[in-house]
Please model this.
Amino acid sequence: MKIDFAHHQSAHCESGVSSNLLLHGGLPISEAMAFGLGSGLFFAYVPFFKINHLPLITFRNAPGSIFKNVTKRLGVKISREKFRSPAKAKATLDGLLDRGIPVGAQTGAYWLPYFPPALRFHFNMHNLVVCGREGDDYLISDPVFPDLVTCAAGDFEKARFAKGALAPKGKIYYIRTMPAAIDLPLAAQKAIRDVCRAMLKTPIPYAGIRGMHLLAKHLEAWPAKHGPRVAAVHLGHMIRMQEEIGTGGAGFRFVYAAFLQELAEQLGRPELQQYSLRMTAIGDRWRDFAVSGARVCKGRGGTDDSYASLAARLRDCAEVERELYRDLLEMI
Amino acid sequence: MRKEEVPQDSCLLDGQREICYAVDASGHYVLAPTAGWEPSNIANIQAWEVIRDELEATSAAVRAGRQSPLAYHMVRNQMDVALLADYVSLWRWQVRRHLRPEIFARLKPALLQRYADLFQISVAALQRLPEVLDLPQLGVEAPLPTDKDS
Model:
């Protein structure tokens, strides 16, 4: 049984899933739009929260919140469920598929057999849409892959019940009802405000612009604190969080710029186009950071100088971002 | 990033393409396929090198009889004692004991099967080291960074 589900490849899993599910429901919301309306853009560096002995560094908001925000702001009613029992999780999923409902699921990427081996890490926040079942195989629209993929039920159960940090616990989500009409200007205003406030005003030093400055301070100290090898591993980790699969480049900054541009056109507010340009320039700065960072990584240790200059670049990124969010908050 | 600058440094994706966002000549954002990007490849290769180093150290310890083969499979699957214990529903101290060769050798078949199922290998494979480290092959022929940009 196969649901007629239009699969579109996207840069990022959760915003891609949101976009594809909304499209299936009849609302043409692009990936960038879903990301923006879901207030996906963020930054956090939490030095004491370790994943594989490395500090948490993220360029997006909490897993699950893009879908939650975008649907809430567009008036789409959704259901979300977590499970303890794999058998019950499977029965619920199969029941929904039988009713012709495509189902979003959070999974651990490590257990998905169709992932390229080089990208199989214990990463528990990978989202995809299940859109059919053929015998013992699930038909999956995984937004970061070009085409539909299949996954054996056994493997899929392992992925849904992956353990470790942020375990998915079989989480599924799907659309219940679509709204009669949407208020895009209001949704966009709320979404943008949310991002600017989170980046500028979160009252903890790990989030937003302050988080970037904290990371810059720690980054400078990595070689002295950990020695060259582990410092390079930390730096590599940061680059992976910024660039590896799913960010659309530059830690989601390009996706957000695309959102601002699309909004400028749809709402007829050309001033937003200026912000899109500024965000693109910020993204380019992050890309430059990654280029220099990777060079330091490859030099295996580098000198203390190079870490200091990387920290300076990071502070630079933080400051231009601060200006952008300030202006955007005022304008919106 | 401009569309014509979208990097195509393949290495990790097994010939697949991922999507990245870039602007075209008219300044419009488009979804551009990319085969990968060098800085990100370097960081990823480095992450695998860390795993390889740990795996080599572990297999040396197994060969020297200091640790059981379970330690090898645990590290091969990028797990630590806490994660492995979670997966097989045991206490951490139990898993830690199973890392000792003399205790691992006495484990009951049912428990061995549980570990083997998790790692998707046979019990026989669980009880020994593979001939060579079975890590993914990375397309490391990707050109390494030059100083073309500063």
